[in-house]
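Hey, can you fold this one?
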Amino acid sequence: MQVKAADRTAPTHRSPPERRPRPRRTPTRRWTSRKAQGLAYAAPTAVFVTVFFLLPLLLVGQMSLSDWPLLAGDRGVNAPENYTDAADSTLFWPAVRFTFLYTVIVTVVLLVLALLLALLVQEFRPGAGFFRTVYFLPSALGLASASLLFWGLYSPTTGPLSSILEGLGLVDDPVSFLGTSTSALLSTVFLIVWKFAGFYMLILLVGLQRIPHEVYEAARMDGASRGQIFRSITLPLLRPSLALCLLLCVTGSLLAFDQFFILTKGGPDNTTVTVVQLIYREAFQRLDLGTAAALSIMVLAVLLLLNVLQFRGLRRADES
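Sure. Predicted structure:
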């Protein structure tokens, strides 16, 4: 009896059930899963780019090779007539020269002024935040709105600028800021510089703040002057920000349209017609989408070439 009681109270030890090993994912399956996830994430962007960029680009390419009036549709291939007609236009080469001249002036003035403003408000001193806001504020205004504002300011009859100059005795007659090709160009450049200087200043300011202060302190301890520090430290380390500003400024200037369309409408005597204005005229005034598309393809090719040259120049500067 005692043995039976002991048998009842003795703990029973059961072996745990055997666990089947989980099937391990092979590297091929894991890579396939990650590839599927990546494709799922990239699909919306790919669809957006295809619908709103690639398909319109293909359509423009087809238009540039076809006789395509605005109100009649595709009448068949006529290549390369659209390209020859665009190049033979009396306004084509003057528009190309004026666009490049405007691009050079705006790019140089904007980048120099933006760099000076960024250096001016770089340090955290009293009033720096206020001036940063003031310089950047015109960038919040739309280009069309800014152009309309300056059109009113430049008006010789109702604008305040001409009246102020007359009141100060600097001029005797009302000033026509848009009356000649030179004055119209300089007036438009002033508008663009006023609007975008703060935007490029902000880009360069971010680049300046990324430069470590220890580098400046080490240069000062070695006896470097301000000019040497600027040439040997600031400019080389600021090269990526300057390259971005250069890319944006050149691209935006070559595609200039709103400011000239509102301020000068190509005048006086078609001396301020840009290439994009010429595309607009061909498409919506002469109703010739084929020639307008050919001009668009030319502009795209020039932009791609300039961007490639800029990127190559930046790479060579970084490698040297």
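The longest helix spans residues 27-64. Let me know if you want another pass with a different chain boundary.
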